[in-house]
Amino acid sequence: MSNTDIPLILISNDDGYMAPGINALVDMLAPTGVRLLVCAPDGPRSGYSCAFSSELPLRLKPISRQDNVEIWACNGTPVDCVKLAIDRILGGKMPDMVIGGINHGDNSTVNNHYSGTMGIAKEGCMKYIPSVAFSSCYYNHDADLSPLAPYVRAIVAKVLDGGLPRGVCLNVNFPARQEFEGVKVCRMTFGRWVNEVVADHHPRGYDYYWMVGNYLNDEPLAEDTDQWALNNGYVAITFF
Description:
Blueprint: E1 8-12, H1 20-29, E2 35-41, E3 60-66, E4 69-74, H2 78-89, E5 97-104, H3 111-114, H4 116-126, E6 131-136, H5 149-162, E7 170-174, E8 182-185, E9 191-194, E10 197-201, E11 207-211, E12 214-217, H6 226-231, E13 234-239
Parallel strand pairs: 1-2, 1-5, 2-4, 5-6, 6-7, 8-13
Antiparallel strand pairs: 3-4, 7-13, 9-12, 10-11
Helix pairs in contact: 2-4
């Protein structure tokens, strides 16, 4: 089989190319007979959503190349990484699939609108490439993500085989546990962030602010939502 016959998957994230989550994803998929091109930020870019750089000069740095895995770093946003990988590294060739993640933290409900991990999937989707974002509700970078492997491999294989409808991408979230009750295809929970700003006063005489907040589930009794699925131990898949 020639190299061009092997499916090519473009991977990025918003935690940086050195993050355990994206490296766990590469380890999960590398043995499955695909080519992996990783182009990810050179540091954390959480909350960048679909932002791209219009004024910052962008740089690409090759990190490593071994067998069917090639890794690059970029000083831009997650979406910048997707755009540059396709235009510069692939010379305009579209990958067979775009994946964001594995993110360290929950990207269900309204979080998906802020998420750079979801921004990756949305960018791929806008280019008509089958795209999926994977996130774990473990925020600890040292968390064991190995239980996600069979689910990730199964979802990737299914999307590579059958594609996705044009204009649709998947948001996959895993609860913070080592065993899952199963998989739920569900809708995004109606919720919002409240108490988002903490103000403080600097000794030099000016005010400054931290963006924090508490998540409020506006439909805690609904059983068809991603939040219900995660709270009850299910892998939550929503279509976006």
